[in-house]
Amino acid sequence: MQNTEIQTYLLQPSGVLPNHPVLPVLVYIRAFESSTDTIEAVFNRHRWLNSWKNGIFPYAHYHSNAHEVLGIASGEARLQIGGADGITLDVHAGDVLVLPAGTAHQCLRASEDFSVIGAYPDGMDYNIHKEEDGAIPGIQQEIAAVPLPATDPVFGEKGPLLNHWTSPAS
């Protein structure tokens, strides 16, 4: 994990997809040498829980009530982050994305062996809003009310997430 490159992207709203108004998306390149068990264990050790293993939906969606970490366990994919006005990322086994609440994401294409481990701070439950749901009244307030996580999902209590995600008052 010592050679992990960290990229940040602050995304603006894209049509009805809100994205987060203050917190950037973080992408950790080569955070893991890749192993489903290792990725999930590290996330869980750092209190990112309610984990699952699967792929990423092929349609734009977001979670308005929870932040999400996505660890690429195997394969590779092209993802759209932030909707049509956002960014396109090519991700590979070992990469990690930390998506603040409200960040739209979808899989545009993936290798046959593509799999992802997802988790949420302190095991928060998450909802799913699809782009086709349209604009949702009060959604920005709901997104802004999601508490900041206490730990970085990969690096723990002193991780880069804590430097990049700070409360507006700090």
Strand content: 25-35%
Q: Strand arrangement, largest sheet? A: 1-2-8-5-10-3
Indicate the mean pLDDT: 94
Low-confidence stretches: none
Please identify the structural class as seen in this structure. mainly beta
Major sheet: size, sense and barrel closure? 6 strands, antiparallel
Report the count of strand segments.
11
- The total of helices stands at 3
Helix residue percentage: 10-25%
How many separate domains make up the residues? 1
Rg from alpha-carbon coordinates = 15 Å
CATH topology-level name = Jelly Rolls
Distance between the termini: 28 Å
Global outline: globular
Protein name: Cupin domain-containing protein
Pfam families: Cupin_2
Domain Cupin type-2: 60-109
A few lines on this structure:
This protein has 170 residues and is mostly beta strands.
Describe the protein in words.
- With 170 residues, the protein is mostly beta strands.
- The model has no long low-confidence stretch (mean pLDDT 94).
- The two termini are 28 Å apart.
- The protein has a single domain (5-131), classed as Jelly Rolls.
- The strands form three sheets. It has a six-stranded antiparallel β-sheet with strand order 1-2-8-5-10-3. A three-stranded antiparallel β-sheet has the order 7-6-9, with no helix packed on it. The protein has a two-stranded antiparallel sheet with strand order 4-11.
- The protein has helices at 36-45, 139-144, 160-164; strands at 5-9, 25-29, 48-54, 61-62, 68-74, 76-81, 87-92, 96-99, 105-110, 115-121, 129-130.
- A hairpin with a 5-residue loop joins strand 6 and strand 7.
